[in-house]
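step=encode ok
step=design start
structure_in=
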């Protein structure tokens, strides 16, 4: 007999109403005991009983398991749970006396050491480096927690340090800012009144490159920091620099030398460290975190670069919505989750502003960002005085609201973004940046120039003139200046405009005087000048026509020879290479350069197999030395370096083959379906139903799941080990291709209606649809960081390839690729290989959108695939499989040297008369 439960009022709230619905499902099942339900649901009886108690909302998995154990239909329960979660997640205002244990987007300070968890091991490693070296560096990507590690980890450790190796006399922390030497001259000197060393910690070291525009001041600041390495120095320096600015550090030889052996990289947190970061601050504050919430945060944040600020903000917002002393998963859901909490907080803050204040908020936030130039956008700390825009009351209200929402910080008169994660996590701000990027760059230069003008006591020589003044006036018309420019900036532009008008008036007066004088002089010299000018013009016109005629002849000959060279490379590589050299020497046209690269590339490939029957498919596993090929004899497993092979499938495959990343499972398309072979035993493990045939196949990164897109059938996810069906994706479109993200959480499907992104856990489509009005579905690949999708149009219909942002769906780059047939992306996403119907394979640089080189194969291309290390490109044709090196000569000089070392003959007289009519006979290759 089931025990009686405490009566509930469904009108008491959404949590109670949901519990009443659960009890009704149990009543309709015959009122089974919770012990009986536990045996079916896989959860304990107490957990299921608590789910229907009405005291708090159960987690979604527990609720669905409860319903399934009662035998009720699962339709609609997930939507009902989410509605209850949103309605029941009422924010609990925090008492003024209650300090949050999490810092959100703000950094951890020295006084926060008691709630700073998860970085003990890294703090110890950094402290050891500081003991051993006088100059130390800490580097990691944005969002990896460098600033908090310095302030809440290293500095407290140094304050308690009292060893002979390191006994700090003083601890100083600073950021470079726009004028590092001018601002920090005193801080850069050591204390001489004690026996210990002065430790200087330089946070946000990249500001030296993004904010400091004076090269001499930057050089002097580096010199003073590096002086700590001198034997008699009393300084120790620790710098923290973003990983994407290490290349800028390498531009300074002395700084690069100082970083050797002293650089500590901040990598992603381990699972245990993440757990400490989540639960440690709560426990220190006497709070609890639901186990289901901890597990969910670990699953969402583990291995995610730059996830720490997102995690900290989500936990802070969850703490603000806590139930009693417990941080619940329901409260976390209401914040928007790991990737949505920042955007939700920012949108809530923005929605509370008036119409006048929203424009002011946009201006202020954009002032706090330095747009990247080949690097990601960065923060731009700005003095409070430079934000005196619009009505003072509105400015104060906007700053107060942004500060209260923890989106910005105000410290010692300087306003700054709370964290750079806000730039990419808030779509509205990201959209503002995309719209105003060029205008922001003009604004940053204008601000620096106005400050320099002020420092020079408003010297007229420091004013804008010419193109700089025109660009600034166009970017900031007079009507926009009061609400977008500071008083100093407006004065600077006004002074420049006034100086230009004054100079124009002076120039007009001088011109009038010169005209009067010139009239007399012109009358005397008119005849001589006219006659000389006519003669000179006739001579110049004759020379120009001669040069133009010669140039046209040279470029036409160059293009003609380049075309013949490209055609001959497939049948006579040496002759084609010689013609490519002559094409370049005739004139360095684009066609000639590409033919040179194609000829040089032929020396960087070798044939893997000599079979000449059938066509070839290729596939790599996780091991770059192992390659699988398909020909008319079956499927072979090759060792790339030794050339040895063994047949793993003797039956004739119908088409595609795929090797799982762990190399254990081989997927082979047969007419009966998709066969999964065990590579070790060379036996069929299972056969999967592919409907009327296989369109595309993809393995998940862990090799446990295989996705199959079939003709006129939905895309299905199968268990690669057992052959069990895991999920079916509901999509009415005809699917062309499938691809897993590197973390395995997202599956992209391409069709004639666009590209959709699917959650592999729930088999549900995500909100973002890429290219929903174009045919971009045949070739798909993810970038290694899961943030971008590369895709191309279909065979014979593809004239370009596009790169999309997974989060926003916006296009990031576009590559022209005419008549493409097959494509492959390198593992790092930097190279795109595209073949055409003529057997040519173009290697494109996805960052610049330009072709790097072209490979000329001797057969029709049927398959392309990069090795896992990206060093080789396997090409399957109707005659062979060839492996090409991807590190190919691209500069004409390197290509010429490669060709001349390989080709040891000259063009004959007959060949000259055929390809170089009327040209003198001379050697095609330089000696050596």
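sequence_out=
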């Amino acid at each position: 007999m089931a025990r009686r439960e405490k009566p509930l009022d469904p009108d008491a709230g959404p949590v109670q109403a949901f519990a009443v619905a659960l009890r009704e499902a149990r009543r309709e099942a015959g009122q089974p005991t919770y012990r009986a339900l536990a045996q079916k649901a896989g959860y304990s009886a107490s957990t299921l009983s608590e789910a229907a108690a009405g005291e708090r909302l159960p987690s979604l998995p527990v609720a669905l398991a409860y319903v399934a154990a009662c035998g009720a239909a699962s339709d609609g329960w997930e939507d009902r749970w989410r509605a209850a979660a949103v309605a029941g997640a009422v924010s609990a205002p925090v008492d003024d006396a209650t300090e949050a244990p999490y810092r959100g987007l703000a950094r951890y300070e020295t006084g926060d050491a008691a709630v700073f968890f998860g970085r003990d091991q890294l703090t110890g490693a950094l402290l050891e480096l500081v003991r051993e070296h006088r100059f130390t560096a800490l580097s990691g990507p944005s969002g990896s927690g460098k600033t908090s590690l310095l302030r809440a980890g290293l500095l407290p450790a140094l304050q308690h340090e009292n060893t002979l190796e390191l006994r700090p006399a003083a601890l100083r922390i600073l950021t470079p800012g726009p004028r590092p030497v001018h601002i920090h001259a005193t801080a850069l000197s050591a204390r001489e009144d004690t026996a210990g060393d002065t430790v200087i910690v330089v946070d946000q070291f990249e500001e030296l490159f993004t904010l400091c525009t004076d090269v001499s001041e930057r050089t002097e600041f580096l010199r003073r920091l590096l002086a700590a390495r001198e034997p008699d120095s009393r300084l120790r320096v620790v710098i923290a620099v973003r990983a994407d600015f290490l290349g800028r550090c390498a531009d300074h030889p002395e700084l690069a030398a100082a970083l050797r052996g002293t650089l500590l990289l901040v990598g992603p947190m381990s699972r245990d460290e993440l757990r400490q970061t989540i639960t440690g601050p709560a426990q220190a504050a006497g709070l609890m975190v639901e186990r289901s919430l901890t597990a969910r945060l670990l699953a969402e944040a583990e291995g995610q670069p730059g996830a720490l600020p997102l995690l900290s903000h989500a936990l802070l917002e969850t703490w603000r919505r806590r139930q009693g002393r417990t941080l619940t998963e329901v409260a976390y859901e209401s914040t928007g989750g790991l990737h949505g909490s920042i955007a939700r907080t920012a949108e809530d803050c923005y929605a509370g502003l008036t119409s006048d204040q929203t424009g002011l908020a946009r201006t202020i936030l954009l002032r706090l960002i330095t747009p990247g130039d080949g690097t990601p956008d960065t923060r731009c700390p700005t003095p409070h005085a430079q934000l005196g825009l619009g009505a003072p009351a509105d400015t104060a209200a906007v700053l107060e609201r942004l500060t209260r929402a923890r989106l910005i910080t105000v410290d010692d008169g300087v306003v700054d973004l709370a964290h750079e994660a806000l730039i990419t996590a808030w779509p509205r701000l990201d959209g503002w940046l995309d719209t105003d990027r060029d205008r922001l760059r003009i604004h940053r230069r204008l601000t620096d120039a106005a400050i320099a003008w002020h420092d020079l006591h408003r010297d007229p020589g420091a004013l804008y003139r010419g193109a700089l003044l025109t660009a600034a006036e166009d970017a900031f018309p007079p009507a926009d200046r009061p609400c977008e420019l500071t008083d100093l900036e407006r004065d600077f532009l006004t002074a420049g405009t006034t100086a230009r008008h004054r100079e124009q008036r002076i120039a007009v007066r001088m011109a009038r005087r010169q005209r009067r004088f010139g009239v007399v002089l012109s009358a005397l010299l008119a005849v001589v000048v006219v006659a000389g000018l006519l003669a000179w013009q006739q001579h110049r016109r004759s020379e120009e026509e001669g040069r133009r005629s010669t140039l046209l002849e040279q470029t036409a000959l160059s293009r003609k020879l380049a075309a013949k060279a490209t055609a001959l490379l497939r049948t006579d590589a040496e002759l084609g290479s010689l013609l490519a050299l002559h094409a370049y020497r005739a004139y360095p046209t684009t066609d000639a350069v590409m033919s040179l690269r194609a000829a040089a590339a032929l020396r960087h490939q070798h044939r893997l197999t000599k079979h000449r029957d059938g066509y070839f498919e290729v596939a790599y596993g996780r091991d770059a030395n192992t390659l699988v090929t398909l020909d008319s004899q079956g499927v072979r497993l090759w060792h790339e370096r030794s050339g040895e092979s063994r047949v793993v499938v003797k039956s004739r495959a119908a088409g595609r083959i795929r090797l799982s990343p762990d190399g254990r499972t081989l997927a082979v398309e047969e007419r009966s379906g998709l066969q999964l072979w065990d590579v070790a035993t060379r036996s069929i493990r299972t056969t999967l139903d592919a409907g009327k045939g296989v369109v595309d196949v993809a393995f998940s990164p862990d090799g446990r799941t295989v996705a199959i897109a079939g003709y006129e059938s939905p895309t299905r996810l199968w268990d690669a080990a057992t052959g069990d069906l895991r999920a079916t994706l509901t999509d009415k479109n005809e699917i062309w291709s499938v691809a897993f993200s590197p973390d395995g959480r997202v599956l992209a499907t391409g069709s004639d209606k666009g590209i959709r992104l699917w959650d592999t856990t729930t088999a549900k489509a995500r909100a973002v649809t890429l290219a929903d009005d174009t045919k971009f579905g045949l070739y798909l690949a993810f970038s290694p960081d899961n943030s971008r999708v590369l895709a191309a149009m279909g065979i014979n219909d593809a004239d370009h390839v596009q790169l999309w942002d997974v989060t926003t769906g916006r296009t990031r780059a576009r590559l022209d690729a005419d008549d493409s047939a097959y494509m492959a992306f390198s593992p790092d996403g930097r190279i795109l290989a595209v073949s055409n119907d003529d057997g040519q394979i173009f290697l494109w640089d996805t960052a610049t959108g330009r072709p790097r080189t072209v490979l000329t194969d001797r057969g029709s291309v049927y398959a392309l695939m990069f090795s896992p290390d990206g060093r080789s490109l396997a090409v399957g044709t109707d005659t062979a499989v060839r492996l090409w090196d991807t590190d190919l000569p691209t500069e004409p000089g390197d290509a010429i040297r490669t060709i001349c070392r390989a080709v040891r003959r000259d063009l004959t007289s007959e060949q000259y008369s055929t390809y170089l009519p009327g040209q003198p006979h001379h050697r095609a290759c330089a000696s050596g």
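step=design ok
step=annotate ok -> The chain has 28 helices and 40 strands.
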